[in-house]
Fold this protein.
Amino acid sequence: MEKVNKYNASLKEFLHYDRYELIAINVFWLGFIAYIASSTILSTKEMPFMLFQPLQLLGLAAIFASSAYLLKPNFESEYFKIFFFLFALWALVILFRGFSFNKNVLKLIFLNPWFGGMFYLVPLVVLFRKSFLLYKKLFSAIILLSVIFLLFSIMFRGILTEVIPDDLNRSVVEYFTKSLGITALFILFTHMYHSKTKNFFAFVVIVVVLILGVIRARRGLLFMAGLGLLMAGYIYFISAKSKLLSGTILLALLFFAVIGGVYVFLNVEMEALYYLQDRGVTDTRSGIEIYFYKDMQGLDWIIGRGMRGEYYCPTMESGNYRGTVETDYLNMILKGGIINLVLLLVILIPAIFLGLFSSKNYLTKAFALWILFWLINTHPSTVQVFTMNYFLVWFGVGVCYSPFIRRIPEEKMKSLFKPVE
């Protein structure tokens, strides 16, 4: 009886929110969307910095102001509490090792979501009060980002589909898809909580991501989208009432996708496909990694070189030193050493196991799979960045380490999220 009363009290708290919390969550997500949309559109080099950088700053102000209200730490796991504070402390060390009051450094830290310093603050979202409203608004933010992705893709279709590839159109595709579009996959991960319209919309967004990945021959992006669709298919299968029907549908879709892809690849004469065929067998990564291994010294491997750490890598495009490694787990070592990577793993790996194997609902399982999805993508892509992709990881960590949220029955969770149709 005591457990039932405790659960009911926790559920009441989970569902409760006041006017100020609603405003703070809305301000947080609107600020984030303004920030990330502005930084993404600036990647095209066609929009005025004087217009969109102030919008970025306004978005940051909204994020910081609302976070001050939403931060209400409540750790339900002593293990997580200890390692989270160690990880957060080490992130501050990395950040301040590269900090300077130089104007260019400050702009890098605050206005560059990919290679600046803002993503070191993303883990703090686990300190937000866990509530139904928080996750409901999270879904809404993903939908808004997806809408912006499609609008931007239409507005800048000339750059995105330009026949001759160059650094600009390649980077614009990366920024558009990974900053705005790719998290539509999480709508598919949690399809049971959304209307058919939203699920179809999310699928269309991912198809557009795949098309842009083919046109620009972004192998990491294609792997990311493909892996995400496979994971979404897995969740669809295990959550379906009829395993035979769902399995048949998934196998049919996979069959037609493979046959169609092979046919287009071999028979349709498109410049973009020739480019993908050429890049598909070209090793563009190992040479950079060899330079990285050669330049890193003993202590560098342990503590890294700080937020603005670089390594010797003479290339025609980038000069003699590079500040990033596209293999993201190596990038984490470059900035914060093996300490940084180990602290991250001792938090994320248990969260995955708790979410997948100690949960009664698919929201937690979906978050656990997203964390796994993100971890796998630290090899082919840069994913530890200030985007919704990384936010989902840390919201997922908070959910997976919460015994109460893991215990919510699926039927109850579905009744909270599922719209009336």
The first strand starts at residue 311 and ends at 315. Residues 328-357 form the longest helix (30 residues). The beta strands are 311-315, 319-322.
